Amino acid sequence: MKRRGVAVLGATGSIGVSTLDVLARHPERFEVLALSANSRIEQLAEQAIRFRPRMAVVSGSDDATRLRDLLSERAPEVTVGHGIDALCGAASDPSVDVVMAAIVGAAGMRPALAAAGAGKTVLLSNKGALVMAGEVFLSASRAGKATVLPIDSEHNAVFQCLPPFWHALDPQSAGQGVARIVLTASGGPFRDWSPERMAGVTPEQACAHPNWSMGRKISVDSATMMNKGLELIEAHYLFGVGPDRLEVVVHPESIIHSMVQYDDGSTLAQLGNPDMRTPIAHALGFPHRLDSGVAALSLPELGRLHFEAPDPGRFPCLGLATEALRQGGAGPCVLNAANEIAVAAFLEGRIGFMQISEVCARVLERQGHGSAGADIEAVEMLDDAARALARETIDSLD
Ligand code: NDP
Ligand code: MG
Fold first, then answer.
1. Same domain, 147 and 62
2. How confident is the model at residue 173 (pLDDT cuts 50, 70, 90)?
3. How many A from CA of 134 to the centre of ligand 1?
4. Residues in contact with 69: Cβ distance below 8 Å, sequence separation at least 6, in sequence order
5. Ligand 1 pocket, 125 CB below 6 A?
6. Which residue has a Cα nearest atom 27 of ligand 1?
7. What pLDDT does 152 receive?
């Protein structure tokens, strides 16, 4: 069997590390050809020494020099590159079959687009590509004949529960027999906190998720429920379903990862222990099933599962994302940019937890009504403008 060549972009992050864990279980199926990182250069060097990729990519030239030094004795054959062109080059390299797009935030958009345009199997973890540039990403995928497989646990669950012929890239199939898509949300660490207590949340508290171990940005998004809002937008693009057929239900145990309800009254759900190696292994092996290292679920041990409707008052970010989705056009991109800036300001201790939604609401109100960027340059301009406005808004709060 020919091994599939894999590029792991964002290899040092939470998803990257889980991906390498799954890949290491199947050396006969996969060959790691490229790895990338931003700031954790020592960790990337260790990964490169272990997996022996052909390419390792970092952001800055100084870091590239440092990485070359670190690899000079133990893995001198690894080609070290830096910057966005090297990253896009790794994503579209002819030797690469599968690209794990797991760079956090807007920085991950161009490499994901490069992989899609080059017709790769794109394991899409980065939310930016769809939220900022949904149409642009989907048309690049269609043009490149890419296969896009969702990694986010909710979308991966939905993908597993949809009929096999369903795919957003084939608009003809959209809508057949599917009544609703129900995304589950853990509700984050402050699910039952009062609004007064939530106002005083610290970055450390927001980053301590009860069920999932994740990067800092997505942990904060999970605590504000903006993460679920961005996931509604992702689901819209991935599955071709409008906001009226998308629903969120709070499920604190994170065992049911999402559901699809059909016209005949059936609800299909995907269940599993909350460990990202399951959706990663699903997408890596698709359509086959691979061992992921995740323990099987024991329902008797769990005993009960709980569900409730989300509280829009305490989680205004969810409402903002739904509004951005209904608004369409620039809305999702502007919201995503404002949120990235607001979350960074919160993590730096510059604004309070509940001010994240305030910043997003103000930026969306002022800048979310235009049309979506028609190409990547237009998307980046829109994103830059929304970030500038978010910074201005934050300064005005000080
Ligand atoms: P992490 O913050 O743990 O990792 C992010 C990765 O991106 C790291 O490898 C980091 O490098 C790299 N990176 C950061 N900034 C840049 C940049 N400017 N240029 C190039 N590379 C950069 O994030 P996660 O792994 O948690 O998440 C990755 C993506 O997957 C996000 O979009 C997230 O929303 C999504 N996701 C994550 C889930 C999870 O459970 N973690 C679940 C579902 C989706 P370095 O560490 O070296 O700085
Ligand atoms: Mg998710």
1. yes
2. low
3. 19
4. none
5. yes
6. 104
7. 97
